[in-house]
Amino acid sequence: MKQAFRVLQIAFTYIGTVVGAGFATGQEILQFFTQYGKWATLTIGLSTILFVWLGTKMMLIAHDTGSRSYEDLNKHLFGYKAGRWITWITLLILIGVNSVMLAGAGSVFVEHLGLHYQTGLLVTLVGTYLLLGRGIRAIMQMNSIVVPMMLLLSLLMITSTLHQPGASRFITLTTDKSLIQVWLSPLLYTSFNLVLAQAVLVPLGNQIQSRNMLKWGGVLGGIGVGFMLLAAHFAMSAQMPGITQFEIPMGSIAFQLGWIVQSVYVSLIFMEIFSTFVADIYGMTLQVRQNIRVHPRVIMLVIMLLCYSLSQFGFSSLLSILYPIFGCLALFWAFKLIMDRWGSFRGTKEKY
After folding, report:
1. Partner of 242 at 20 to 30 A CA spacing, among 15, 37, 341, 350?
2. Cα-based distances in Å from 317 to 219, 324, 332
3. DSSP string spanning 75-121?
4. Residue-range definition of the domain harbouring residue 96
5. Whether 294 contacts 285, CB under 8 Å
6. pTM (2 decimals)?
7. How many domains does the chain have?
8. pLDDT digits (tens, 9 = 90+) for 286-335
């Protein structure tokens, strides 16, 4: 039972790392999947396979090579010199994306709590500063609470959408996008999210002693991400094209299910943004600390200040501009991970 619980913790941490601002709010799914109509169900299936395979492989490589941060993983994949360059590019990507997450927190406070945009940013920053001292264990504990609730709400959205007139729209929606765009989108999406997830999954793979638990945690986590993608796409397809006008489209769907569900879902959106933001700041701090001998709190404050400055541009505008660009950069990284022969599903070696 203890091993099964730890496997679930790993899976929930994996899911919670991917389910950040763009995913939890629905904007990410709208940009990469739902806008492609009936093709989205197939491309979500492809993304799920890649999340299971490559996310698990990443943790196993970190476990086997003793990688402490994503810099160590990149040095393994690209060599020492190129790995350092890739690491600093990854850091810039992480800062940009966490600016999007911070902006997402501000949007939650504006659209659903009637509070000021800056209030959401400051609450997230202060909470992150207070929690970061507890490390990876606090991140796993947070996701063990938040992710199961998100999975339950995904089920609720599926069952409620089944009774709507547009329930079958996910298999009938058309798109004017080319097939190249359609099939490139899941590759960009998965590559991009795995580049971001390495900030958390690499330290996690290094600290978990059982290789077998990492393997099953990665498989369950990848399947969980795929299920939540499909559930959100199914619910939003029924509301197309009107759903595209909202900064937080999933929140507007929750609104239709009653104020109790809406309140719970909006709270969970913020908690997912918050937990992913905490995890990424933790991973970035570990990486920078390996190169700059400054107190971790100072590094953390500088990174958060950069994220705060970029978040002033707003949530959906940052998401639509930065994510596709970063996704293209991430494709090269994902290709190297695919070609790496380490970390395959071989044996159940334990690390002592």
Report:
1. 15
2. 33, 12, 25
3. HHHH-HHHHHHHHHHHHHHHHHHHHHHHHHHHHHHHHHH---HHHHH
4. 10-339
5. no
6. 0.83
7. 1
8. 888 887 888 888 888 999 998 888 877 755 555 566 666 676 778 888 88
